[in-house]
Amino acid sequence: MNRTSAARITGAVLLATGVVTALSVPAFGAPAAPVTPTGSDTESYPAELLQAVERDLGLNADQARVRLATDQTSSEIAEQAKASLGDAFGGAWIDQASGRLTVAVTRPGLSVTGADVKVVQNSLTQLSGTKSVLDLMSAPASITSWRVDEKSNSVVVEVNKNLRDAAADKWIATAKGIGGAVQVAEVTESPTPLYDLRGGDAIYMGGGRCSLGFSVSGGYVTAGHCGRAGTAVSGYNRVAQGSFAGSVFPGNDMAHVRTNSNWTPRPWVNRYGGANVIVRGSTVAAIGAQICRSGSTTGWRCGTVQAYNQTVNYPQGTVRGLTRTNACAEPGDSGGSWVAGSGFGQAQGVTSGGSGNCSSGGTTFFQPVNPILSRYGLTLTRG
């Protein structure tokens, strides 16, 4: 079903792509079919996974399949070794050139089937214990990270050499005093969160696409029909973003997505072609007020508020408490932001469904945002 025909279904429809059967309109064509490896390897890998491995590791298709299979086997051997060796286990790693697994042990004479063995001084338990103590210490900004490095059998502390100061040296000295396994590596940059959460941007769930509603502490809100609790989601750039922490549909159409540390909540809504709208609050607009919405299919569209507390009988079930507008929307806009008020700075809700499209016009409904915040105990990110 194409986007136009889907949008013209009689009555109200959901505005997600690839999520609900009635509107399965993938963002960039149908999801790629799994590729079946040849030869003795019976595993199946998605085409996009193989392509990424080929690109980033410099392998051809057959080499990529073999590498993925051997990596899985090595991971299983490493887990078995960790369980059986106990305190004698010093870690494990796969050599990037040969693909072979090495298991570190603290006692000579031990062997591990399917892996090379290296005798080391520190067990993984000891290294993890040292790192746990460092985790309790407050670090200056110049200390960028610390980790257990199984290959070097040490705890590696990274420090930005451009920012290194007396506070960093003091922290490092204390760290080394905790255990002799601490090593220091200098780096030239400090890590920062990589991506921003912004209302109206695309979000992806498997083969489906929706839109981000509003940023909240630790994530964002969107439409419930876009995903169920536990559904993995990636951002506009297809980078892993987190998963649905809660979802209600039908009945209501609301969801909370909890994001990982690579994403920073911002009080922004994408105006598609204009400066970001800054969200200041969530005061409800009056009937007849101008209102605009942002979505990943049709961008920035405006209309007026026509009614509150409308019950809509979708094919998938009845949803209550929706707000009716005459702003247009299309599949993929689901979950996107609705804003009103001075500078459009007042968050109103997230797109649920509607009828018509942005060529012929139509009616669109949104789930008010304040009930979502209340249900999940969330705080709107404000500018």
From TrEMBL:
Reply yes or no: does the keyword Signal apply: yes
Q: From which domain of life does this come?
A: Bacteria
Signal sequence coordinates = 1-29
Domain Peptidase S1A alpha-lytic prodomain: residue ranges: 122-177
What is a single Pfam family found in this protein's UniProt entry? Pro_Al_protease
The entry's keywords: Disulfide bond, Hydrolase, Protease, Serine protease, Signal, Zymogen
> Is Protein biosynthesis included in the keywords of this UniProt record?
no
Q: Which family does it belong to?
A: Belongs to the peptidase S1 family.
Indicate what this protein is called per its UniProt record. Answer: S1 family peptidase
